[in-house]
Amino acid sequence: MSSSKSVTLPNMANYWVPFTANRQFKSMPRLFKAAKGNYFTSIDDREILDSTAGLWCVPAGHGRAEIATAVGNQLMTLDYAPAFQSSHPLAFEAAERLAEYMPAGLDRIFFTNSGSECADTALKIALAYHRVTGNPLRNKLIGRERGYHGVNFGGIAVGGIAGNRKAFGNSLAGVDHIRHPLDIAKNAFTKGVPADGGIALANEFEQRMMTLHDPATIAALIIEPMQGSAGVIVPPAAYLKRLREICTKHGILLIFDEVITGFGRLGTKFGADYFDVIPDILTCAKGLTNGVVPMGAVAVKRDIYDAFMENSAAGAIELPHGYTYSAIPIACAAAIATLNIFATEKLEDRAATLSTYFETAAHSLKGLPMVKDIRNIGLVAGIEFEPIAGKPGALAFATYLKCYEMGVHVRFTGDIIAISPPLTIEKYEIDRIFNTLSDAIKFVIAQGEAGLDANSYLKNEQAWAMHNQQNT
Ligand SMILES: Cc1ncc(COP(=O)(O)O)c(C=O)c1O
What pTM, to 2 d.p., does this model score? Predict the structure, then answer.
């Protein structure tokens, strides 16, 4: 690793950085210029271990030549074909390949460009399905507290993260939420899936929702099998199976948002496989193309698709929905290349094999000051801190900055650090992630108030370059 002589920071005035404190970030940017395998290279040439697989979206590691070649070739062969009223063979091949990868029965595929578009697409399909089958009064949508289904209006309506909703006022009507399954008082530091309470919690859905709403008015329940963005919330055993039973009993469609849990994250292809529960609709994105081309997919059970085909007037567009870039050729090429990598390298199995090692490493942080809970499943871990009065998220943010300084990219959300490395991670890299995290937590806490101040950390890559120069 060499330090560069000088780093030129870009003009940062024009770009509005998403989900980011722009004023703070622009005074203290963290910029990557390259990535390969499990590492980023920052613009001052530091190697940064990627413990988050980008934004959970690079399961096969960065810079995969197979995907780059497939995308490059596709660009020079067929860059674009109109997505409505015409198509191209690769769209059908990508759908066929993805259907083979899906849990049994989920073999009709609608392509989108993101997880957010998937959530809204799935909700629209659910509503339209009930109409097309003669049940227009089934029009309520149920989500879950602390759920994340992206940022579009449907997704934030059924989502349950307050900060993502309140800035935008009213969204959809006819939406309600069930409780999230996190119970730190009872389950703190549980390794993997909590054993108890799942059935009672699921039954609460039936008791509360059926009392509040006539079950015949509920179109769908949408949940993430494991809640990722709100801080790695692992459901208790039997909970999802019981929810499935309740949905089936009342004719409610069950939607699994597998944007994070898809593609091996839990050590299985999907969360549905891990928990042995098959939803009616499953959404995925991110890992579908290994994060390199925006693409999402909504897989529906065949009878849902058939209902549209059988009950729509001849010649009618059965689902008036779609995107200009649905199944754009390069996304299909990237998806097929990614599925090939999964088939060859069995990345789900790799994740499953590594998960015990990963779990032990994650739970080695138990006992550190301020660490309130550690949760894990597959190759995901969440480390939750005690809240600090008046400074929500400050400890996690400072820990993130310190880890970055120490060459490991982690993710923070509220008072939680989330770790979700590429499935290509090695054991020594897992050690490095959690050792760094441990050192960073100790460091930040030892500094007291100053440790929580973002200004205590090196400001930007330019400062880094100078710092490195002085130290070599
Ligand atoms: C479960 C879930 N659904 C939807 C989304 C939104 O995906 P995108 O950012 O691709 O729109 C995410 C993103 O993290 C997610 O975790």
Answer: 0.96
Ligand 1 in reach of 236 Cβ (< 6 A): no
Residue 120 in contact with ligand 1 by CB distance below 6 A:
no
Q: Could you tell me if the CB of 57 is within 6 A of ligand 1? A: no
Confidence of residue 1 (pLDDT cuts 50, 70, 90): very low
Partners of 36 in the beta sheet? Answer: 39
Q: Whose Cα sits closest to atom 8 in ligand 1?
A: 115
Closest by CA to 19, choosing from 154, 111, 116, is 116
pLDDT tens string 315-348: 999 999 999 999 999 999 999 999 999 999 999 9
Is the Cβ–Cβ distance between 123 and 112 less than 8 Å?
no
- State the distance from the centre of ligand 1 to the C-alpha of 7, rounded, in angstroms: 33
> Relative to the CA of 57, which ligand 1 atom is closest?
14
CA of 226 to the centre of ligand 1 (A): 13
Residue 25 in tokens: 């970030």
Residue 221 Cβ < 6 Å to ligand 1: no
Given a contact cutoff of 8 angstroms between Cβ atoms, the answer to whether 234 and 258 are in contact is no
User: What CATH architecture does domain 66-345 belong to?
Assistant: 3-Layer(aba) Sandwich (3.40)
> Averaged over 57-85, what is the pLDDT?
98
Q: 420 in ligand 1 pocket by Cβ < 6 Å?
A: no
Q: Hey, which residues does 284 pair with through a beta bridge?
A: 297
Query: Which of 117, 229, 258, 283 to mutate for ligand 1's pocket (most ligand atoms within 8 Å of CB)?
Result: 229
Contact criterion met (CB below 8 Å) for 130 and 163? no
CATH 3.90.1150.10 domain residues, the chain: 22-58+346-470
Torsion, Cα of 269, 158, 162, 278 (10° steps):
-20
Superfamily the domain 22-58+346-470 falls into = Aspartate Aminotransferase, domain 1 (3.90.1150.10)
The DSSP code for 91 is H
Comparing 48-52, 210-214, 240-244, 431-435, which segment has the lowest mean pLDDT? 210-214
pLDDT digits (tens, 9 = 90+) for 292-318: 999 999 999 999 999 999 999 999 999
Residues of the chain with CATH 3.40.640.10: 66-345
Average pLDDT, the chain: 95
Distance of alpha carbon 376 from alpha carbon 231, whole angstroms: 10
Q: Is 116 in the pocket of ligand 1 (CB under 6 A)?
A: yes
Determine if ligand 1 sits within 6 Å of the CB of residue 260. Answer: yes
Q: Is the CB of 119 under 6 A from ligand 1?
A: yes
